[in-house]
Specification:
The complex is a heterodimer. Chain A is mostly helical. In chain A, helix 9 crosses helix 11 and helix 11 runs antiparallel to helix 15. Chain A starts with a helix and ends with a helix. By secondary structure, chain B is α/β, with parallel strands linked by helices. Chain B has 18 helices and 20 strands. The chains are: A mainly alpha, B alpha/beta. Chains A and B meet through helix 3, helix 10, helix 11, helix 13 and strand 1 of A and helix 1, strand 1, helix 17 and helix 18 of B. Strand 1 of chain A pairs antiparallel with strand 1 of chain B. Chain B: Keywords: Membrane, Transmembrane, Transmembrane helix. Chain B: InterPro entries: ABC_transp_unknown, DUF7088. Chain B: Pfam families: ABC_transp_aux, DUF7088. Chain A: One of its GO terms (molecular function) is ABC-type transporter activity.
């Protein structure tokens, strides 16, 4: 049992290192991080007017996370497999005696690390709010943690879709569309339409699959087991799809 | 081809697993949660858990919410989700004794009839359909209690409202509170009028209004004497006997009740403004000091219109806002209060020689250096500076509220005083019968007494703690009285529930900066404004003396002496500079805060991206060097 697991995961460390290196050796990660931080800062301070709210609470900051992830994380993940396809290295990779799950998770975790670095670099935001007032730091720490979990779910969509197509741009567009569906499902604007068409019960069911709905309790400072289960389950499902879609060449 | 079908099939399968797994997980894991907020804002309190655990019979909760209408109002929708989850938590914590069902009263549906029949409010909404958003509770014998509308601004008291409702359904007889009061706001019979605090009492307890000319007291659990009018000896004896038998009373007395006067005519005597503990206090060894109390340490700011028409905020020592943390933290009545309690021209409770074994525990005291103030003046409009002029600092804090516990003697050692003869002869028979039905006189406590005394009547009035219009409660005045009734009615665990402050955390640093700027610039500004007006007065004086009917009408200043002309030109320059510095002050007032905002914005918006870009460039140059080295 253990040996099968070890065999399946054999490529993890090497893939993780290789992908992380690829991110930071090219301008990719830097451009991504700079633009992500800039957008998050602008939205928090200019659009949500964090300073004028007068409340020492990171609510106006966290509220943007799902929406920004929806755009930025597919961009981060789009090259993971599409790149290999374009360069023709995927066949080589798949022919190596390495477990596919290890490859998939290695790539996903590398992208996740970059996203986590982005979150880490918003530390000045946390320091600022502590400088301005006395925020509830335990609640903020929790929100950061769940936000990181949510980032994983967004990345898993991007990674899986990128295994499906050879073009980064196509991968990006499809990923954003899927991410949008799972984000906007909790949006009142969408919900009311769904409700008008299919009834309230269905609208509630849809809302339960929305990242926004799932992220809501964490924003209040409550850790719910079902939220963790949702994000982890979502990530696992798309990682599985990723394996499936990456291996179709091997299947022939 | 086969592989392709396999792929599609597996993809579909994964999708179904995700769908089903999530639906199952959402249900199975619904209750599992950890509350990371500092005040445990989203966790059921122990009082609720105890109430739910000890339920004797099942309670059915019907949650009424018009989903479609609610979705147009984000605040309502968010609150509705919270209520739903809270109800689910209740159901889980009750071990099946609380059953929750939800109905959605669509127009002309059975559910709508059910909601309306129970008495749920129909709130007019922007569309054609009204919003129903309330809770109906029923017990096994079909008693009904409800929250007609779940106002989002009452979120912090939601748990209390719900738990109280369930407790009442489990034990349908609410404790009875008898009220003796001369305040119109405490006398209303129905639940709609009167003070907010009276309405709140009506929600939790059954209220017995006791008429001014009472000849006996009704059956009740707690007696609330709120700023009583003049009581006859017989009436005082009735109260005395109640306290000796039942032992549970709250006295709200005041040497200078502003609110008692505000409704009355100008000719109203000062006797209206004063109430006391009377004969009872003398026996208990507690007196209400004859004078009113001012407290500079806890003075509230009140808006005062100056004669120029400008409204200033002035600290007024007769209006006392006592912070919750200075109150007794051991007594359940005050221990859980979170906010200030506002008093208006309160009084002081002076301890004399207590009967043996009786304890007087202070609940609320003034700051370190209070002062006595003439009550006749304090009850009327007394300006803040007048109060400060007659301020004579006392050496020690004064007690404004206290709890008296122990076995008390009767204030009537010679037995019952004579019956009050009604003026109307026809009532005499009834009065005699009433007197005959009274239990016999007793000389000492049958039940150890718990008497709460609060030396201010104004704190009951809405204007002391409720924002007019919105109904938002800004101080714990009402909570103080309700806690006292709860504690005395033997519902101690509910009093731990009430006052959960909202989780608002202000940016303290900015508020401090704003306050500092206000004090700094306010003085400068008023100085400059004074200088400006004197300069302008002198200017117009010079100009009017100059614009005579003389020969030099074309150039009025020609009539002035050289000195005067010099003064005139310096005055004009002065006025210009003063005006300029006034403008500067207005700008400076926000300058520090604006500078802070700009700095934080720069760091937070541009700091991260710049850092990352620099790191990127560094890495790129190192790689370029390496590549050149390799080449």
């Amino acid at each position: 049992m253990i040996s099968i697991l070890r065999q399946q995961m054999s490529g993890f460390t090497a893939t993780y290192r290789r992908e992380l290196n690829a991110y930071f050796a090219t301008p990719m990660a830097y451009v991504f991080l700079a633009v992500f931080l800039l957008a998050l800062g602008l939205f928090t301070w200019e659009a949500a007017r964090f300073f004028d709210s007068g409340v020492a609470d990171l609510q106006p900051f966290f509220a943007w996370h799902p929406w920004l992830y929806m755009i930025f994380l597919p961009a981060l993940a789009m090259r993971l497999w599409a790149d290999e396809r374009a360069a023709g290295t995927d066949e080589l990779l798949l022919s190596l005696p390495l477990g596919l799950p290890g490859l998939v998770l290695g790539k996903l975790c590398a992208a996740w690390t970059v996203a986590g670095t982005g979150l880490l670099l918003t530390l000045p935001m946390w320091l600022s709010v502590n400088y301005l007032g006395n925020p509830d730091n335990a609640a903020i720490a929790l929100t950061y943690l769940v936000s990181l979990l949510m980032a994983g779910a967004y990345l898993s969509i991007g990674a899986a879709v990128s295994a499906l197509t050879g073009s980064q741009v196509t991968a990006f567009v499809i990923s954003v569309v899927i991410a949008f569906v799972f984000t906007a499902a909790g949006w009142p604007l969408v919900l009311s339409t769904v409700q008008a068409l299919f009834g309230t019960g269905f609208a509630d069911l849809i809302a339960r699959f929305s990242f926004i709905t799932q992220f809501e309790s964490a924003q209040r400072g409550v850790l719910e087991l079902r939220v963790v289960a949702y994000f982890l389950g979502f990530t696992a499902t798309f990682a599985f799809l990723n394996c499936l879609w990456a291996s179709r060449r091997r299947l022939g | 081809m086969k592989a392709r079908r396999y792929l599609v099939l597996m993809t579909l399968l994964a999708g179904i697993v995700l769908l089903a797994g999530n639906i199952a997980a959402q249900r199975l894991l619904a209750g599992a949660r950890l509350d990371f907020t500092e005040g445990k804002l989203y966790t059921l309190s122990d009082a609720t858990r105890v109430t739910l655990r000890d339920l004797a019979e099942p309670v059915e909760i019907t949650y009424v919410y018009s989903r479609r209408v609610g979705q147009d109002y984000p605040a309502i929708q968010a609150h509705a989700a919270r209520v739903r989850e809270l109800l689910a938590t209740y159901a889980a914590a009750s071990g099946g004794n609380v059953r929750v069902r939800e109905i959605d009263p669509k127009p002309f549906s059975e559910a709508e009839d059910e909601a309306l029949a129970a008495g749920i409010s129909a709130i007019p909404a922007s569309g054609n359909d009204p919003l129903y958003f309330g809770i109906i509770g029923r017990n096994a014998i079909d008693d009904l209690r409800l929250i007609p509308f779940l106002a989002p601004e009452r979120e912090t008291t939601l748990e209390y409202d719900l738990t109280r409702m369930i407790a009442r359904l489990d034990n349908p007889e609410p404790p009875r509170v008898g009220i003796i009061s001369s305040l119109p706001g405490m006398k209303a019979l129905d639940g709609e009028s009167g003070y907010v605090v009276l309405q709140d009492i009506g929600r939790s307890f059954s209220v017995e209004q006791i008429p001014d000319d009472f000849g006996s007291l009704p059956e009740m659990d707690v007696l609330l004497v709120a700023h009583p009018g003049t009581l006859t000896a017989r009436q005082e004896w009735l109260i005395d006997q109640f306290i000796l038998r039942q032992g549970r009373a709250i006295f709200v007395v005041d040497p200078a009740a502003k609110t008692a006067l505000s409704g009355a005519m100008f000719s109203a005597t000062d006797s209206l403004a004063r109430s006391s503990l009377g004969r009872l206090g003398a026996v208990w060894g507690v007196e209400l000091a004859p004078q009113a109390v001012a407290d500079a340490a806890n003075a509230l700011t009140v808006p005062v219109e100056s004669f120029t028409g400008r409204v200033d905020e002035v600290a007024h020592p007769l209006f006392v806002g006592v912070p919750a943390e200075t109150m007794s933290r051991n007594d359940p009545i005050t221990a859980d209060l979170m906010r200030v309690v506002n008093f208006g021209a309160p009084g002081a409770l002076i301890q004399g020689s207590l009967p043996e074994g009786v304890i007087l525990a202070p609940l609320i005291t003034t700051g370190p250096s209070p002062s006595f103030i003439d009550p006749a003046r304090a009850a009327r409009d007394m300006a803040a500076d007048e109060v400060l002029q007659s301020y004579m600092t006392e050496a020690a804090p004064l007690v404004m509220a206290a709890r008296l516990s122990g076995r008390l003697p009767s204030a009537f050692p010679n037995g019952a005083p004579a019956m009050d003869e009604p003026s109307d002869a026809s009532d005499l028979e009834a009065a005699k019968a009433e007197a005959a039905s009274l239990p016999p006189h007793i000389a000492a406590s049958e039940t150890p007494a718990e008497v709460v005394m609060i030396a201010d009547a104004d704190f009951l009035a809405d204007d002391f703690y409720v924002v007019p219009g919105s109904g938002m409660v800004v101080a714990d005045n009402g909570a103080l009285l309700l806690n006292a009734i709860d504690a005395l009615a033997g519902r101690g665990e509910l009093s731990r529930l009430r006052s959960r402050a909202a989780s608002l955390r202000p940016m303290v640093r900015i508020e401090t900066m704003r306050d500092a700027a206000e004090t700094q610039y306010f003085r400068q500004q008023s100085e400059l404004e004074a200088r400006l007006s004197t300069a302008q007065a002198r200017l117009s004086e010079l100009q009017s003396s100059a614009s005579g009917d003389g020969f030099f009408a074309g150039d009025p200043e020609a009539e002035l002496t050289a000195d005067e002309r010099a003064e005139l030109s310096t005055l004009r320059e002065d006025i210009l500079t003063i005006r300029a510095s006034l403008r500067d002050i207005e700008r400076d007032y926000r300058r520090d805060i604006d500078a802070l905002e700009a700095t934080l914005k720069a760091i937070n918006i541009w700091g991260g991206p710049l850092l990352v870009t620099l790191a990127g460039i560094l890495v790129w140059r190192r790689q370029a060097k390496k590549r050149r080295g390799a080449a």
